[in-house]
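#structure-requests
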Amino acid sequence: MHGEHKEIKEHTQVPQGVYQPEAGGTHKEVHHEISIAAEPIFSIGSFPVVNSLFTTWIVTLLLIILSLILKFRIKKNPGTFQLVWEMLYEGALDLADQVTGDRKVSMQALPIALTAFIFILASNWLGILPGAGSVGMIITEHGKEVFVPYLRGGTADINTTLALSLISVIGANIFGIISIGVWKTFNKFINLKVLSEMVTRVKKDPTVLIVAPITFFVGLIEVIGEIAKIASLSFRLFGNVFAGEVLLTSMASIAAYFIPIPFLFLEIIVGFIQALIFAVLTLVYFTIASMDHEHEDEHIGEHIEKEIITA
């Protein structure tokens, strides 16, 4: 790939640091290097499919199957299976209400946040299942035998977490446009209204020449804030999940049995917490985007004017 010759030698399950037997009784070391970048395992035409993308496809397929099962098993007189899922959804809705403070916003934003939570949780946990990271193939790269796993946690790839972050932040702004309109959403970032007020109100209130530029530049800071949200969401999730996989690999290289077990349970908890943090922050972004800050900005502007006058 990309001009490098990689020859697939065999398919096997290889723990890190194992020497593969060769003909004549000799042994050749198989390297298992921890890579930040996801590794290609096969291609569809000229499109390389990396192990993290393959894992993401598996997660997506499992979630689609689960959704179809839930859909076709919904009844007016619910059974135990349906009651459990309804109870979980009601709990998630109550938690969303605590974040948004508005049931209407919760009902609109929860489907996206809850979908992100389930997808991230499944990706996090699938990446630490037995076989993920240990079942793969051996390729020849730069004259060395290198082990490449078939499965790698989807959220251990920065491309996946970046895509999820873009969906969250861009989705929140689209939700803001739907909730309060295009003009008000646009003015949160590039406040043309306050610039026009410099012309219309300058004779009546000269302090607008000071207040308006401040308010305008606050909007530009909001643009930087949106970019920071994307970076924060993506790198937080990627960093925690990737670090967990490195930790488990390191513990397994020390001792394959018993020692990794406490760390495995730790990563199960971390995977859940990271999925929950992402979902809650998505709800927060949707809530902020649905708020009309125009009256709040006017109140802040009046307060600044009073401070300037009394100074």
